[in-house]
């Protein structure tokens, strides 16, 4: 992706695996920021952690039980959004599916569900769930069409952003939908925590979007934003993780306070910590 101007934003630390610092730059025109990984040839090592929640499949501590309870609520919330877009005969592709929790939820509700996941262990788990799997979106034939493609907190991980979105355009039926959930770098909690904000998640998160930035990007790919939805619970998790990673006393309660403040402010600004965007192919 060609960017117009490099403006240094933060130097953020990988708190999950290596404690290495990565610079984040912003392009004011596009309202998109990105993580500088020019000296990294293989990012897979940064995902090798049992703390990485996208690959968590069972609770180990009390907070894990809360995490999985909220996850079940959010599955129903996501499903309510997707079902409105195509009430019947949904043929859906979930890109960056992780362990296939969302995809399996849809499969059980009659969706013709496929997934893309490049982690081999996660891909095997998705196969065992009866999902049609692809290790790369580029391995999907262009004559294989979907009426909904979803990115649940996965688009920010994609190094080849332009290529991925172009491929989505070719795979989506005319009048199909692209549903994207990403953190919002313009949210109150992002501005409060700055380089310590856990949703920066360097270097796994390569892109950091604003509302304007992601809309401008998708317009260039022939997608029109038709609706957006807040992810109210995400901010509590992100704020808690941020407080915990930075050694705060009582991180749960401090994260809860910041989460409440962020959600209240977002009621007026619409700048929620994480947002679901629904785009329609034009």
- State the low-pLDDT regions, or none: none
What's the architecture in CATH terms?
Answer: 3-Layer(aba) Sandwich
| Broad structural category | alpha/beta
> For the record, what CATH class applies?
Alpha Beta
Main sheet: strands, sense, barrel: 7 strands, mixed
Q: What's the CATH topology label?
A: Rossmann fold
Over the alpha carbons, how many angstroms does the gyration radius reach? 18 Å
Estimated share of beta-strand residues: 15-25%
Please provide the ordered H/E string of secondary-structure elements. Answer: EEEHEHEHEEHEHEHEHHE
Q: Tell me the span between the first and last alpha carbons.
A: 22 Å
Shape: globular
Q: Would you give an account of this structure?
A:
- α7 packs across α8 (251-269).
- It is globular, with a radius of gyration of 18 Å.
- With 282 residues, it is an alpha/beta fold.
- β2 (21-27) and β3 form a beta hairpin.
- The protein has a 7-stranded mixed β-sheet with strand order 6-5-4-7-8-11-10, with helices on both faces. Strands 1-2-3-9 form a 4-stranded antiparallel β-sheet.
- It contains 8 helices and 11 strands.
What layout of secondary structure does this protein have?
Elements: E1 7-13, E2 21-27, E3 32-35, H1 62-85, E4 91-95, H2 101-107, E5 112-116, H3 120-128, E6 132-134, E7 146-152, H4 161-171, E8 172-183, H5 188-193, E9 207-209, H6 211-219, E10 223-230, H7 234-245, H8 251-269, E11 274-281
Parallel strand pairs: 4-5, 4-7, 5-6, 7-8
Antiparallel strand pairs: 1-2, 2-3, 3-9, 8-11, 10-11
Helix pairs in contact: 7-8
Identify the notable features of this structure and list them briefly.
282 residues, alpha/beta, Rossmann fold, seven-stranded mixed sheet
